[in-house]
Amino acid sequence: MSTSTTASVSTHILDTSAGRPAEGVAVQLSARSGRNADWHPLGGSATDADGRCKDLPAPPEGTTHVRLDFAVETYFEKKQADVQQDAPATRDSGAVFFPEVAITFAVSPGEHYHVPLLLNPFGYSVYRGS
To answer: What keywords appear on the UniProt entry (predicted)?
Structure first.
């Protein structure tokens, strides 16, 4: 595929509650070619020690929308288990409030989209990075 006729996507996750990258989070990329078109899963990856996915698949030509699905539940369960070895949890039932985060955005051919996810156990935010 020519990069001049397709968009490219990258992402990374920062755990703002810990002040460090979120390692080992599964990320799936899907694309569609039009507002009312069906989503097509393209594949995925997992974040590395720096919280980055460096090998997400390129959306096909004609893609107008991309969705990133972040499976954050496993990350927070592991993190909570590590913390509870030192101190018992005192907040909520231990359930993960946001088990998944799905971010949908519009794309244009030839553009690169870097979409960082700032994450904590009770909230998240995203933005178009550089």
So the answer is: Hydrolase, Purine metabolism
